[in-house]
Specification:
Blueprint lengths: L1 E3 L2 E6 L8 H5 L5 E9 L2 E8 L3 E8 L2 E8 L9 H9 L15 E3 L1 E5 L2 E7 L6 E6 L2 E6 L4 E3 L12 E6 L4 E6 L6 E6 L2 E6 L9 E2 L2 E3 L8 E4 L3 E8 L6 E7 L4 E2 L4 E2 L3 E3 L2 E3 L1 E5 L5 E5 L2 E5 L10 H11 L23 H17 L8 H12 L3 H14 L7 H13 L3 H8 L8 H13 L3 H10 L9 H17 L3 H11 L6 H17 L3 H12 L4 H17 L5 H14 L4 H16 L3 H12 L6 H18 L9 H10 L8 H16 L3 H15 L2 H17 L3 H10 L7 H17 L3 H7 L6 H14 L2 H12 L11 H17 L2 H11 L9 H9 L8 H27 L21 H8 L1
Length: 919
């Protein structure tokens, strides 16, 4: 091939006969003409280009190609002034150096929620690349600083070892991390945070698109990587080769899965790019944000599909384990050379193809996908696959492996009650591997006898599980034995859980249960040492319960004060949330607050968590504690030391805790008595009104409505009293209650001035209280003779008894004398004078009695004036005092019995709080 001006001459081999008809009839835009000619026994193809056209010639995939395009315009001559300005324009400022003063970047570590975070604080934003190669995660930075990784955690399942290396233009950290551990990268300012472990990703990474470079020249790849800073060559000391790495500024962007090519592979990354070369002349460069990958003679871009297919054929689909409840951790989670996504996509595609065959399609591919997900501990994904399979074909519900596999996935997802539904089907009733899962689920739900029984039924399958699950099964049975008081059995299960070598997290969890067993045996000091050691673990899910239990023992042994313990519990409740440990912490804090008399804080703490986690067994115990605390305050008298207004406010804020039945009614009545004693009649009436209208029926409702009417009368609201009586009428009531209601109704009518109606209501009532009320009504009607006779009758033979008169009797005597005097009955007045003259000197108001019984006017106060001034007010005040006394002595109305609710027994040092709750 040669070029002669605007003519391109292609020399073809002998015998070639190209079809150029199309080029002649409809030539491309930049082609002026085409012709062939025989030269020296061969054929030449002459392509004449347009005057404004140019061409580029190249080869790819074994073929030669010609690209025609418009010739770029010649550069215009720059004016002298513009050239001078361009020469004097300042260059772009260099990026600030990210290396801090001293040249050392000190890595910080955070461990929690199943994740490990490695934090690298730089002085200025640094370019980074984060990628995985086999069992190692690489973190590469584009600045040659010294990375101090001395604070790296050890013994975690997310990482086992870490080492830092430095090159001429980079610094890197190599982390040994099990394959399949998720890796995330996040940048914030000058700080890079690398997260290992499954969980939420705060800043989702953008996917880098790697495509074929369509520009002329040797075949290659290109990728747009925003913020590219450098291409570095990093030596891998374990493999012994060199990686090409592209670093970039944040936010995170990466390649989600491995990309295989014939001569190279792009590694999966959370940030940047990394290439593993199979050839010596692989070249990687960047122009701004455009990264180019190639070699001088071009890449062979056909994918190595035969190799991948051969590997996948060898790998095969995950097969069923020996028992329905077993997990084949050796084979199920295998991913092959293509990585997780390639394996997952292949299994998913097979499952979708199988599902597309219809309702009667086989289940092999979908079960294989579910096994892969369970083996990878992707429980929610596995549940979704299995549920969809059951929706399409319900006959699979009769398959024992399906039921067991779905139950296992639900246990992993902590959906224990749903898991029990799958494990309880008859086809799994005799399977020992499933019995161990039943035991574990029952233990998580505090079903201790069931947990122990099922563990024994699964003993023959115990050794076929992985070491981690063997430790978990034995540990849960130890907790069941501990709860049932079998300390020897619990100790034996702890030894069984520690028999196999597991990762440090599992061992720490077992040690935590061991400390509980030791504590139950009475060895408090030894248990405290174990708790203290476990509490120093860098994992909050383990250290928090250990700190909680250690604090309880220190409080019990008197090593700390209740105030110190309360402060520790208050801090722990925000340190770890969402499981039984949070509820146990809140229970301990609530008991301490009760013991310190901090009733409102105690109720707020106890009420705040139980409703948020209702499915946990600890939530039931917490609700029982809350109910017991409320009962202790308002039923057993623990709140009697509060001012009535404070007690009322506390009751109103937590009135939803009032128990149903007689206990709740008694609580309200006790509070009402206190309010009546201090004349808070409106508040007392509101409480009783709510009881009568919303909580009671029949006789109890009538009783409470009667009390409500009495309070209205005390508060001088006779209309409301009548409404309360009329709204609670019923057919059959006890005689005593009917008599009381008649008295209340008659007094209300009297207070409204409806005296005749009041007397009609009392017509057949010959009781003492009815007689006193008639006397008061006659007094108000100015029926002096009738009133005087009834007052004297009420006194009876009191004149025969020695000793001073009571306030009530003195009032009746006073009004009897005034009434006889006003009625002009001198004989009766003389009789009263004769009988009661000996009581003058011991009376509270002797002068008033002399005036009333003698009719002799002293000073400016006549008998008539005296009666008008004193009688009504004193009579009402005396009646109110009498009613208050009756409220204090009167038994509560009988409602339906309250269901028993017993709180869990508190620790010894918290007994004072429980005592306060019980009164």
């Amino acid at each position: 091939m040669r070029r002669d001006g605007q003519a391109l001459v292609l020399r073809l081999g002998q015998g070639a006969a190209p079809d150029i008809t199309r080029l002649k009839v409809a030539p491309p835009r930049w082609l002026k003409s085409v012709q062939t000619r025989q030269v020296g026994g061969g054929l030449e193809l002459v392509l004449t280009l347009a005057d404004t056209a140019d061409a580029k010639i190249g080869a790819a995939d074994g073929a030669t190609y010609i690209n025609l395009f418009e010739k770029p315009p010649a550069p215009a001559e720059t004016a002298p002034a513009e050239a001078e300005a361009a020469a004097q324009a300042p260059a772009a400022p260099p990026r600030p150096s990210p290396i801090p003063a001293g040249g050392v970047v000190r890595m910080e570590t955070k461990v929690g929620a199943g994740q490990v975070q490695l934090v690298f604080p730089w002085a200025n934003p640094a370019g980074a690349a984060v990628f995985r190669r086999g069992g190692a995660v690489w973190v590469v930075f584009d600045a040659p600083a010294t990375l101090d990784v001395s604070k790296a955690p050890r013994g975690l399942r997310q990482l086992t070892r870490m080492g830092a290396v430095r090159g001429a233009d980079y610094a890197a950290v190599r982390i040994d991390s099990p394959a399949g551990t998720p890796v995330f990268a996040q940048s914030q300012g000058a700080t890079w945070t690398i997260t290992l472990g499954p969980g939420a990703q705060v800043e989702p990474a953008t996917q880098i698109r790697v495509v074929r470079d369509q520009a002329g020249g040797p075949a290659g790849l290109k990728a747009a990587v925003a913020g590219t800073t450098r291409v570095v060559r990093v030596a891998d000391p374990i493999v012994g080769d060199t990686l090409s790495v592209v670093t970039a500024l944040g936010p995170a962007k990466g390649l989600p899965s491995r990309r295989e090519f014939v001569q190279m592979a792009l590694l999966p990354s959370a940030q940047g790019l990394a290439a593993e070369a199979y050839i010596d002349d692989l070249a990687m460069s960047h122009d701004g944000d455009l990264v180019q990958i190639g070699r001088p003679s071009g890449l062979t871009l056909s994918p190595a599909s035969t190799t991948v297919e051969r590997a996948e054929a060898t790998l095969g689909a995950p097969q069923a384990a020996g028992m329905p409840g077993l997990i084949d951790y050796r084979n199920w989670p295998k991913t092959g050379s293509g990585g997780f996504l390639a394996r997952y996509n292949a299994l998913l595609a097979a499952a979708n193809d199988e599902a597309a065959l219809g309702r009667d399609a086989p289940m092999a591919a979908r079960m294989s996908l579910a096994r892969f997900l369970v083996g990878s501990e992707l429980s929610y994904e596995a549940i979704g696959v299995l549920n969809e399979a059951a929706r399409r074909n319900q006959r699979v519900l009769d398959d024992p492996e399906f039921r067991a596999l779905r139950g296992v996935a639900k246990v992993m997802a902590r959906r224990y009650k749903e898991a029990q539904a799958d494990f309880s089907v008859p086809i799994l009733s005799d399977d020992p591997s499933v019995a161990l899962w039943r035991s574990y689920a029952a233990a998580q739900l505090d079903q201790w006898p069931e947990a122990r029984a099922q563990f024994g039924a699964g003993a023959e399958a115990f050794n076929q599980f992985s070491p981690a699950w063997k430790a978990r099964f034995a540990r849960s049975d130890a907790l069941a034995a501990l709860a049932l008081g079998d300390l020897n059995g619990a100790e034996a299960r702890i030894k069984l859980a520690l028999m196999d070598k597991t990762d440090p997290v599992e061992e720490l969890q077992t040690r935590l249960v061991e400390a509980q067993v030791v504590e139950a045996m009475g060895y408090k000091d030894r248990a405290l040492r174990i708790y203290a050691a476990v509490s120093r673990a860098p994992i909050d899910s383990i250290s928090t319960p250990a700190t909680l239990k250690a604090t309880k023992i220190r409080l019990e042994l008197g090593k700390i004060t209740p105030v110190d313990a309360a402060n520790t519990f208050a801090a722990l409740r925000y340190r770890w949330r969402g499981d039984a440990t949070e509820l146990e912490t809140i229970r301990a804090l609530g008991h301490l607050y009760l013991g310190q008399g901090r009733y409102r804080e105690a109720l707020e703490v106890l009420r705040g968590a139980g409703a948020r986690l209702p499915n946990l067994p600890e939530s039931v115990r917490l609700q029982a504690d809350l109910a017991a605390a409320f009962r202790g305050l308002f039923l057993d008298g623990a709140a009697d030391g509060l001012e009535p207004v404070q007690a009322l406010a506390l009751f109103y804020d937590f009135r939803d805790l009032t128990p149903l039945g007689a206990d709740g009614d008694l609580m309200v009545r006790k509070l009402v008595r206190r309010l009546v004693d201090v004349d808070l009649l409106d508040q007392a009436a509101e409480l009783l009104k709510y009881q009568a209208e919303n909580r009671l029926d029949g006789v109890p409702r009538a009783q409470v409505a009667t009390d409500l009417a009495l309070i209205y009368l005390m508060d001088r609201k006779p209309e409301q009293a009548l409404i309360a009586i009329n709204a609670s009428r019923t057919t059959i009531l006890p005689s005593a209650l009917n008599a009381e209601r008649r008295l209340v109704e008659a007094r209300a009518l009297s207070d409204l001035g409806r005296y005749d109606h009041a007397l009609e209501v009392l017509d057949r009532d010959a009781g003492r209280d009815a007689q006193d009320l008639r006397a008061e009504i006659y007094w108000k009607q100015k029926g002096w003779a009738q009133a005087a006779a009834l007052f004297e009758k009420s006194l009876g033979d009191r004149w025969k008894q020695a000793g001073p008169l009571s306030a009530e009797d003195e009032g009746k005597l006073l009004r009897a004398g005034v009434a006889y005097s006003l009625a002009g009955d001198d004989a009766a007045l003389a009789r009263m004078q004769q009988r009661y003259s000996g009581f003058y000197d011991q009376a509270r108001n002797p002068d008033a009695l002399r005036v009333a019984l003698t009719g002799v006017q002293q000073g400016q106060l006549s008998v008539g004036d005296f009666g008008r001034v004193t009688a009504d007010n004193e009579a009402f005040a005396g009646w109110v005092a009498k009613m208050k006394a009756r409220f204090r002595e009167k038994p509560a109305p009988l409602g339906p019995p309250t269901p028993p609710a017993q709180a869990a027994k508190p620790p010894p040092k918290q007994a004072s709080a429980a005592t306060a709750a019980r009164g």
